[in-house]
Amino acid sequence: MKYEIIIFDADDTLFDFKKAEKEAFKSTMLEFNIEYDEDYHLKEYSNINADIWKEFEKGLITQEKLKVERFKRFSEKLKIEFDEIEFANSYTKNLSFASFLYDDSIELIENLHKDYRLTIITNGLTEVQHKRVRNSVIGKYFEEVVISEEVGAAKPDIKIFEHALSKINYTDKRKVLMVGDSLSSDIKGGINFGIDTCWFNPEKAENKSGLNPTYEITKLTLLKNILEQ
User: Fold this and answer.
1) What global pTM score does this model have?
2) Catalytic annotation on 9?
3) DSSP, res 194
4) Same domain, 124 and 49
5) What is the CATH number of the domain that holds 55?
6) Number of H helices, E strands in the chain
7) Which of 19, 113, 127, 194 lies at 20 to 30 Å from 98 by C-alpha?
8) 158-216 pLDDT, tens per residue?
9) Contact at 8 Å (CB) between 197 and 177?
10) SS3 160
């Protein structure tokens, strides 16, 4: 086999984060007795959240500050008053219980774990990701779930990849494949680390990043075709 280790991203690759985010955000808004309009509130929050995670990837904000800052910005932009820290804590709790897998994820991982060693690297919060990933039906198939908050480094920083391989006691980068949906974190990180990469691109987005993933797939099931080459 060309590869022995497959590193997966979690959210928007194996797990439907948009669905999880929607459920957790709605629950939190209702807990704070805010009249909720999904088309308006969720859209605004999602944009703010996406921007702040990009800042985090670039090292412009710490993960600890990120937890609350996104809701502070949301509150200020929409002129909604609430305690940002309490809101952040409630959202984190709700998100930790919102674990939704894509339809193809279960069968894919159940099949792959028979022949490959599997690991997850995620730029997420420890409290959220351990519950969502480890308690999922596929959680038992991963040797390690490496979370940026625990490591103190996040994709695309090569330190988190080094940590992941160290945890599973593996050194041969030639036989490691990174699979993820984000060009800026998963693919860039994998390339920087010197391993092959597979861009999961279900929306068939145009690659304007200047990065060249080793492979590109639009469906998770197509990963098997690559591995059989």
Assistant:
1) 0.92
2) yes
3) T
4) no
5) 1.10.150.240
6) 10, 6
7) 113
8) 999 999 999 999 999 999 999 999 999 999 999 999 999 999 999 999 999 999 999 99
9) yes
10) helix
